[in-house]
């Protein structure tokens, strides 16, 4: 601009060319805009806010206008700071003050425009930009052009023209042209909702769905400018949390991109488009690109906030020297002191607001990223092929969701750190150059050296982090498998062996954890000591170069080093998090790269287009496409609509694989597979969701009462539901744990029937139910409700084959025979062998006159099909008053109220009884004292001004400073090492205690506790204890000590500040107490809402085949979205509430700081030492930061300590009775005879539940074979559980060879008994480890057992023999083969008492006969107790016990019971033989 004293004389209207006038006009114009926008905001609020549904409206050019406004604000701010601190150092004139004011007002006005655009106009009722803005932009362009013309005239006159003025005016003109263009053409470009609503709502009113949406919109989106600025929009939630304990329904919903429904859709589309451009492979970079699509706007905004915060934070250090000189009496102009105080205060305000909005936004970004990644992992797990899934166990997949997605979300805190470090270093060098000149080059070199030092450390950290995650995956995989099979482990007395396996895996993990933590400690030490190291190098360089050291310049440098300490200190954390995030992204990307099920395996045709329901032409299918021999070979099959097809064959012949092939689960090698119509599938192993019975049956369909009752009747479920206390509203435990095997099977049959599909696939569903129920199900379901449907059923029961229109006989993966019953019976040997084995089993009944007996009826036996086989069983109706307590699975327990001191005490004293804690605190106190002393020394020993004399010579100055610096560094090293040592010991101890208690918990705990809750503690909570919590505790303690150090330094200069400090502290504490109840409960809700996400994911993994078979993927994905949203809600509001508190505390601490400054500038010159006063101001600059960090650490600590709280909950689980009672151990040979006497045995599953066994008395003679029979729910399996003390008797006793089983240790009991359970269980590992997990037997003994259980030849075929791999849950072995492995275990053990709990249900009759023959040969002298649904399995027993309704109805030899024609057992046999033989009549 033209200086006022050099105006050209030929200008008549020289006044209008005066710089004062031009600047004044600009200031006035921008103030009009400023206040105009504020008035518009108030008017909008008074008028009633926003449009009902502005979500679908977007203004054209909104984003360019928004970012241009942000740029202008930042541009003017930078010019203002440069003018103030650099260009105008020579002095101030009216013109310069006018320029400075103009730039400041411009920066403020354009910032307000940006905020208004983002908050008020982004989605609003405006059809174009507001009139005020458009008119103002016109004036703005006119004034900018006018100023540029003045610049051009000045240049032509040859007058002085500052280059920044010419550049600025050019920028203003260009921006003005753009804004005018945007104002003229910036209309609404998307208004779908407004165009459609009148059509949808004929009355012209507001659609009810839109009203509902507006009521559930996030309060953040409804908040106004000031509300968002001060976080007042979250105040109502904090108020509610202060008055009552918050529950999930109290937490407002999420809207916009914070709602995972919206953000995931954007993410998915971006991922698909990125994949198409990268060879359809998901990489870490592709994931990053897709994540940016949902967060890029917030990333830019947080970057802006971060930059504003960084710039504002360096205002203080740049003014320190000026302030010290002012205190020393050097005044530049009148009221300079108050101008300095005002500048300090404004800078602090900008810093506070910038930091708080930066922090809340990065957390919101983290929540969003975590949510979409969790949903992506869920969706992938639902579609991944079975072959790909074998390489990733459920534990690994759960880790991806619970740990890796969490880590990527946590990265948002650090995403701006890399570039922010560079900006801060540059700003620091500018400040240092002004203070110390060329010595700042040494600062740069020292900083670069320290940053280069991180390279080898980061390489090590990455290596340790990868290995740590791998070892954690292995542990979680094993833990997940063990939790699923805990019942069999307890029955076999193996739980402590498997606990030692978990401990071994944890030891391996601990090795990497220790390396990781100690490496992190070294990194922390290096970077904490970095500022001291840099200051020593810088000051030494000053001494060598002869640069005079004055206290003001030194304090400015120290203040800069302290600010620089934050990014340098956070750099190791940033490096660590970047490494963790990179590893996690690569793991997630690797999982997302897995091959999906091939949708082209099956050709799906409409029902009307094909006469065939299923058609396979020359089909070859293989679970492993790379295998030389396919699993199914040369399959040709044509099934017409309405046909019943039976599939039979020996164990391992490929029956279940054929059904999987029809479902599209098995990769197709060649051939054609066509399906016509919808399908429903009933797997061999029941898959039941945790939740209500009715929800399991409906499975996403609408309730149709008539059809529902018809299905219940067909599946014989009505009686069961009458007995259950809540009927069909009864909550089923995880994996249907509180239902018997038969009930689970009938529930999943009901689920299939209710779907009313076209094609039904049944995989041996009748094996888990008794003979009568099986017959009834076959008749009512397959021959009744499904009479007109296409049904393909696998069965081992020959009696069900006659009703089939087509029978397929399978062997070695081929369809060996196909045809009608009589046709294939006459034409082949394999089918004849199956039928022959069945007839051989029935031959035991030949001596019985079947016709003399009447078939049994339900009412005669008085059966109650209650849920008694597992926890929750009962046989009587529960009184209505007990209903609230009757559900087995309760909501997850969560503590309420304050995290007590006792919790901290338990945590701190876990390692070495807390001995290291005081040592760590002493080290930190010494570090802080030495730091303060070193700074005090530099401020005291150097002169205030160039003409002052130093107190000591330069050598002494540096030697003392270096000595103090070395002392503080030593304390820092000791502190870092001790923190890691205590953290490692504590994590190890808590892990051991929790797992010991979990493994010693009674079976009722596992029945009532979903495994997701346990896995959540073993993964997420344990990770927090391993790494996060010790550092949070340490940081809180260290920050508090630093804060106390600042208060001490400030009080040395002006103790009067305590008059302000004490009430400010009181208000701060009140705010904290007001906030903490909400923060605590929100944090607990995060933990509580995460478990259902993990549980739903785990259930989906195990039931993926069933879900896909019903085409229910979309519904399960929607459920996952809802659960993830529920998990994200408290996380979102946790971030907002924390910044609500932090902002208020920052403002309060800023008041304290300003009061100190006002006191210092108000006292006369010479009353206090300017150097020491400057030191107090230097420390005071960090007051708000440290106070904010202290409260942040405190709140984070309280929230994270909930992980300790949750782990400690599981260290207090009631334990089972002792494993060994040393004073009462049985003889080594016990039991020698095997006599089992049961006397008045009564059993209930819980105190509030009725008796299941109601006074059983009977004797199982030693060396004899006893069969236990009865309808489903009569108490058979409960009796076995009582024998093994899985459930303790309410009264009565069980005596084996004279020893009361309740008087000895559990392992002494269970290890002497053997059992083949109803659900065959195999663990991931090898055949050897599955047969002999305790490693007690030789190879010869193992091979002998395999041969006896008919598996020897099968194992010899495999290349690895005994080391042949077994995948998770034994999925690479058929159900029948798994049952034979269980037989092999008992053959190795050779116990005197053997129990078979429906052990032959999963094998064909021929294999059943072989098993029975094996038992007769090798257990002829043992007591064998058999629970069986096949009467043939118990007919050759020495004694039969018939249970009904928890009582012994009959107990005698089979022969005597059969001789008595009126006995219930005789009628049961008559029914079985009648059914079996009637089907053989051709």
From TrEMBL:
Membrane topology note: Multi-pass membrane protein
Keywords in alphabetical order: ATP-binding, Membrane, Nucleotide-binding, Repeat, Translocase, Transmembrane, Transmembrane helix, Transport
Biological source species: Carnegiea gigantea
Span list, region Disordered: 864-883
Pfam family, one: ABC_membrane
Compartment annotation: Membrane
EC number: 7.6.2.2
Family stated for the protein in its record: Belongs to the ABC transporter superfamily. ABCC family. Conjugate transporter (TC 3.A.1.208) subfamily.
Membrane-traversing stretches: 20-44, 65-87, 99-119, 131-155, 170-189, 290-312, 419-436, 441-461, 516-544, 915-938, 958-984, 1029-1047, 1053-1071, 1147-1166
Taxonomic lineage from the root: Eukaryota, Viridiplantae, Streptophyta, Embryophyta, Tracheophyta
Catalysed reaction, written as an equation: ATP + H2O + xenobioticSide 1 = ADP + phosphate + xenobioticSide 2
GO MF entries: ABC-type xenobiotic transporter activity; ATP binding; ATP hydrolysis activity
The protein, known as: ABC-type xenobiotic transporter
Domain ABC transporter: 614-837, 1236-1470
Entry's Gene Ontology cellular component terms: membrane
Segments forming domain ABC transmembrane type-1: 300-580, 919-1199
């Amino acid at each position: 601009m033209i200086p006022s004293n050099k105006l050209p004389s030929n200008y008549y209207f020289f006044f209008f060319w005066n710089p004062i006038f031009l600047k004044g006009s600009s200031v006035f114009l921008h103030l009009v805009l400023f206040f105009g926008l504020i008035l518009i905001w108030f008017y909008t609020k008074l008028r009633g806010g926003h449009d009902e549904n502005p979500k679908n409206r977007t203004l054209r050019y909104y984003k360019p206008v928004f970012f241009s406004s942000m740029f202008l604000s930042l541009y003017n701010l930078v010019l203002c700071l440069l003018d103030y601190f650099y260009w105008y150092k020579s002095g101030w004139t009216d013109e310069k003050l006018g320029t400075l004011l103009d730039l400041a007002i411009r920066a403020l006005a354009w910032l307000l425009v940006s905020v208004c655009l983002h908050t008020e106009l982004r989605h609003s009722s405006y059809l174009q930009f507001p009139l005020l803005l458009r008119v103002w932009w016109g004036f703005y362009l006119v004034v900018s052009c006018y100023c540029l013309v003045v610049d051009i005239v000045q240049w032509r006159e040859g007058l002085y023209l500052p280059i920044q003025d010419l550049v600025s005016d050019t920028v203003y003109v260009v921006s003005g042209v753009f804004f005018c263009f945007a104002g003229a053409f910036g209309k609404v470009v998307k208004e779908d909702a407004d165009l459609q609503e009148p059509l949808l709502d004929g009355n012209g009113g507001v659609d009810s769905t839109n009203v509902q949406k507006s009521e559930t919109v996030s309060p953040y989106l409804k908040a106004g400018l000031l509300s968002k600025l001060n976080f007042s929009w979250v105040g109502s939630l904090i108020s509610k949390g202060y008055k009552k304990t918050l529950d999930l329904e109290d937490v407002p919903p999420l809207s916009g991109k914070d709602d995972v429904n919206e953000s995931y859709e954007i993410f998915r589309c971006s991922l698909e488009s990125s994949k198409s451009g990268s060879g359809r492979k998901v990489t870490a970079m592709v994931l990053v690109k897709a994540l940016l699509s949902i967060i890029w706007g917030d990333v830019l905004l947080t970057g802006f906030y971060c930059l504003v915060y960084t710039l504002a934070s360096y205002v203080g250090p740049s003014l320190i020297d000026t302030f010290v000189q002012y205190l020393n009496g050097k005044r530049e102009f009148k009221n300079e002191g108050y101008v300095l105080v005002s500048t300090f205060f404004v800078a602090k305000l900008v810093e506070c607001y910038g930091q708080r909005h930066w922090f809340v936004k990065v957390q919101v970004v983290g929540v969003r990223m975590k949510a979409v990644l969790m949903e992506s992992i869920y969706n992938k797990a639902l579609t991944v092929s079975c072959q790909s899934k074998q390489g990733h166990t459920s534990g690994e997949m759960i880790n991806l969701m619970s740990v890796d997605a969490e880590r990527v979300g946590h990265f948002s805190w650090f995403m701006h750190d890399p570039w922010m470090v560079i900006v801060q270093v540059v700003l620091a060098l500018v400040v240092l150059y002004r203070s110390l000149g060329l010595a700042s080059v040494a600062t740069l070199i020292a900083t670069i050296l320290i940053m280069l030092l991180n390279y080898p450390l980061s390489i090590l950290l990455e290596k340790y982090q990868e290995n740590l995650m791998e070892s954690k995956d292995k542990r979680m995989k094993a833990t997940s498998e063990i939790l699923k099979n805990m019942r069999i482990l307890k029955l076999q007395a193996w739980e402590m062996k498997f606990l030692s396996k978990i401990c071994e895996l944890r030891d391996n993990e601990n090795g990497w954890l220790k390396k990781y933590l100690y490496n992190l400690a070294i990194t922390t030490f290096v970077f904490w000591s970095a500022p001291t190291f840099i200051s020593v190098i810088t000051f030494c360089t000053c001494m060598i170069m002869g640069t005079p050291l004055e206290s003001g310049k030194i304090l400015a440098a120290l203040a800069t080093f302290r600010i620089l300490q934050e990014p340098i200190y956070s750099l190791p954390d940033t490096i660590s998090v970047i490494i963790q995030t990179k590893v996690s992204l690569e793991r997630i990307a690797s999982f997302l790269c897995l091959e999906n099920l091939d949708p082209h395996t099956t050709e799906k045709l409409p029902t009307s287009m094909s006469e065939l329901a299923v058609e396979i032409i020359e089909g070859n299918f293989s679970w492993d496409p790379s295998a030389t021999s396919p699993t199914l070979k040369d399959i040709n099959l044509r099934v017409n609509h309405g046909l019943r097809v039976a599939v039979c064959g020996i164990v391992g012949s490929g029956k279940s694989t054929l059904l999987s092939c029809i479902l599209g689960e098995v990769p197709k090698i060649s051939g054609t597979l066509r399906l016509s119509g919808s399908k429903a599938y009933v797997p061999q192993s029941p898959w039941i969701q945790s939740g209500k019975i009715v929800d399991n049956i409906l499975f996403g369909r609408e309730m149709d009462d008539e059809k529902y009752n018809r299905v219940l009747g067909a599946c014989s479920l009505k009686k069961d539901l009458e007995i259950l206390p809540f009927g069909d509203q009864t909550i089923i435990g995880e994996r249907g744990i509180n239902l018997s095997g038969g009930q689970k099977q009938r529930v999943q049959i009901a689920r299939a029937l209710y779907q009313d599909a076209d094609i039904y696939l049944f995989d041996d569903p009748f094996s888990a139910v008794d003979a009568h129920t099986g017959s009834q199900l076959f008749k009512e379901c397959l021959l009744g409700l499904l009479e007109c449907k296409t049904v393909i059923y696998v069965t081992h029961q020959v009696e069900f084959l006659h009703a089939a229109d087509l029978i397929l006989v399978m062997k070695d993966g081929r369809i060996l025979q196909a045809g009608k019953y009589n046709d294939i019976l006459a034409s082949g040997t394999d089918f004849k062998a199956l039928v022959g084995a069945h007839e051989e089993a029935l031959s035991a009944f030949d001596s019985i006159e079947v016709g003399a007996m009447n078939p049994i009826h339900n009412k005669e036996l008085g059966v109650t099909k209650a849920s008694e086989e597992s926890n929750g069983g009962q046989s009587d109706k529960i009184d209505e008053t007990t209903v609230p307590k009757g559900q087995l699975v309760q909501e997850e327990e969560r503590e309420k109220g304050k995290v007590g001191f006792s919790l901290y005490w338990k945590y701190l004293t876990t390692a070495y009884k807390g001995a290291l804690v005081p040592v760590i605190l002493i080290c930190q106190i010494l570090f802080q004292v030495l730091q303060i002393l070193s700074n005090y020394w530099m401020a005291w020993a150097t002169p205030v001004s160039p003409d002052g004399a130093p107190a000591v010579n330069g050598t002494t100055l540096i030697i003392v400073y270096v000595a103090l610096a070395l002392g503080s560094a030593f304390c820092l090293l000791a502190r870092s090492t001790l923190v890691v040592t205590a953290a490692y010991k504590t994590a190890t101890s808590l892990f051991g205690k929790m797992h010991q208690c979990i493994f010693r918990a009674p079976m009722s705990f596992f029945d009532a506790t979903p495994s997701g809750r346990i896995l959540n503690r073993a993964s997420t909570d344990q990770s927090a204890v391993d790494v996060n919590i010790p550092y949070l505790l340490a940081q809180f303690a260290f920050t508090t000590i630093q804060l106390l150090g600042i208060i001490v330094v400030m009080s040395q200069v002006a103790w009067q500040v305590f008059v302000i400090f004490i009430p400010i502290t009181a208000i701060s504490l009140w705010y904290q107490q007001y906030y903490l109840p909400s923060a605590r409960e929100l944090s607990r809700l995060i933990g509580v809402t995460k478990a259902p996400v993990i549980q739903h994911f785990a259930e989906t993994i195990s039931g993926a085949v069933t879900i896909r078979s019903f085409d229910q993927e979309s519904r399960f994905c929607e459920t996952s979205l809802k659960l993830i949203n529920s998990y994200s809600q408290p996380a979102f509001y946790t971030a907002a509430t924390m910044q609500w508190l932090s902002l208020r505390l920052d403002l309060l601490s800023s008041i304290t700081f300003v009061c100190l400054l006002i006191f210092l500038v108000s006292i006369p010159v010479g009353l206090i030492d300017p150097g020491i006063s400057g030191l107090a101001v230097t420390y005071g600059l960090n007051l708000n930061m440290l106070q904010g960090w202290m409260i942040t650490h405190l709140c984070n600590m309280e929230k994270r300590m909930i992980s300790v709280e949750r782990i400690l909950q599981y260290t207090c689980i009631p334990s089972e009775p002792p494993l060994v009672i040393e004073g009462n151990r049985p003889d080594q040979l016990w039991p020698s005879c095997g006599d089992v006497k049961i006397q008045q045995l009564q059993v209930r599953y819980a105190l509030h539940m009725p008796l299941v066994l109601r006074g059983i008395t009977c004797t199982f003679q030693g060396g004899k074979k006893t069969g236990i029979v009865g309808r489903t729910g009569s108490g058979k399996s409960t009796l076995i559980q009582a024998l093994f003390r899985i459930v303790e008797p309410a009264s009565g006793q069980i005596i084996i060879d004279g020893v009361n089983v309740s008087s000895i240790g559990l392992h002494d009991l269970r290890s002497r008994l053997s059992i083949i359970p109803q659900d065959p269980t195999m663990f991931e590992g090898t055949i050897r480890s599955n047969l002999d997990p305790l490693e007690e037997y030789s190879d010869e003994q193992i091979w002998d057992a395999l041969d006896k259980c008919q598996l020897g030849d099968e194992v010899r075929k495999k290349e690895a023999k005994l080391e042949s791999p077994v995948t998770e849950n034994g999925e690479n072995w058929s159900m029948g083969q798994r049952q034979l492995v269980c037989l092999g275990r008992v053959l190795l053990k050779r116990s005197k008492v053997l129990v078979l709990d429906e052990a032959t249900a999963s094998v064909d009759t021929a294999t059943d006969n072989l098993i029975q023959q094996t038992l007769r040969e090798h257990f002829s002298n043992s007591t064998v107790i058999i629970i069986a649904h096949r009467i043939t399995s118990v007919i050759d027993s020495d004694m039969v016990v018939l249970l009904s309704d928890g009582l012994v109805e009959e107990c005698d030899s089979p022969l005597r019971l059969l001789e008595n024609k009126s006995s219930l057992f005789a009628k049961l046999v008559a029914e079985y033989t009648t059914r079996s033989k009637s089907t053989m009549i051709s």
